[in-house]
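Record type: monomer structure entry
Structure origin: computed from sequence
Chain ID: A
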Amino acid sequence: MPDLTLTTFDWVPEMPRGYVRDLRVRWALEEAGLPYRIASVPFGDRTAAHFAHQPFGQVPWLTDGDVSIFESGAILLHLGQRSAALMPSDQRGRGAAMEWVFAALNSVEMASLPWSILKFTGNAGDTPAWKFLDDFLKLRLKHMEPVLADREWLAGSFSVADILMSDVLRVVDHFDGLANSPACRAYVARATARPAFAKAHADQLAHFAAADRVRRVGGA
């Protein structure tokens, strides 16, 4: 049995499928060719054991032997230590990858997440709050455009930084939020064209589709 176990929900509603954050970890594991298994926890009943691994009752978390790690950014940095496919080998490249991991989570996703939540829930509209969030995201994208227009990948070679940044931007692109950011949109297209992303995405969708079948049988 592999030492690496990725835990996600056993089922989620249709809307977030393809965007649940275990996908980021699946993608990294596929890029690195590291063997792993999938475990799941109930979506609707967060147990004490769940909170022991993930204090906020979210997913994913990764167990590596007797080590348990939560938060997708922390998990990807951990995996980056295990595989040269996920982190540059030189000090300058590793530093660049780490700074862009934090930029993806703290600078870009800070703006994209509330924007995306309102889009997902159908609450984006002509309100001062929406305008503020939309302007905030557009400002972040304005700063990302010249960066991504100037390079293929953020740290020279493909790394965990690109998994995180492209996944953050992918949600925005889903709602056509990159229409005026061609370099960002092209970057997302490059990243999601990678075979490891395609497999990770398909595997996540299949995981939840299998849960649908179980629920239908159980409810019959």
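Annotation 1: Residues 152 and 173 are 18 Å apart (CA to CA).
Annotation 2: Strands lie at 4-9, 36-41, 61-64, 67-70.
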